Amino acid sequence: MMRYELKSIGIWGFIRVAFFINLVAGFIIGFLYGLFLSLVFTVWQQFPILENLGGGGLESISFGVLLIVLPIMGAVGGAIFFTLFGVIIIVIYNLITRLTGGLEFDLQPAGQPSPRPMTAYGAVPPGPPPPPPVHPGGPSVPDPQSTLMPPDSQIPPLGPHPPYEDDNRSGRESN
Question: Which 8-state DSSP code applies to residue 52?
């Protein structure tokens, strides 16, 4: 297993990849937003009481215009905004790693098994539970009376300890 440290992220490589991803995502989100607004405006026009609340002009917005303009605006706006946001985050990361060091990764070549399996919490998963004990005579239920109390000979005496040979505190004479 090899240990690597990510000390910096290249800004121009990030810009190329992030701009394209944000362009596609912004187009898809803009298209969905255009569908939603077209539905809202269509429902809005069906109720005459709501016409005065809209401030007018809703009749001029068509379904086709929303489905053309909003995906383009979403693609361009999302690509520019989110790419710039990502560049700011990368510049901050690169500055912090100069002071504290980078993120560390343990990498291994593909196809090789991991030396120890990991779980979400980083511990080795436990094995199967041990099987229950098997008695030679088969499974038997113990007698409840024998498990509740030990025989009288095994019960320790209560009270003070028994007298020692040189101890006369109990008031009895020792032989």
Answer: T
What angle is formed at CA 157 by the lines to CA 167 and CA 147, rounded to 5 degrees?
A: 155
- Cβ of 23: how many Cβ atoms within 10 Å? 18
How confident is the model over 124-168, as pLDDT tens digits?
556 777 777 766 665 555 555 555 555 555 666 666 665 555 555
What is the spatial distance between Cα 114 and Cα 126, in angstroms, rounded to a whole number? 16
SS3 113: coil
* 3-class SS of residue 80: helix
Q: How far apart are CA 106 and CA 80, in angstroms?
A: 34
Which pair of structure tokens corresponds to residue 99? 């002071």
pTM over 0.70: no
DSSP code, position 129: P
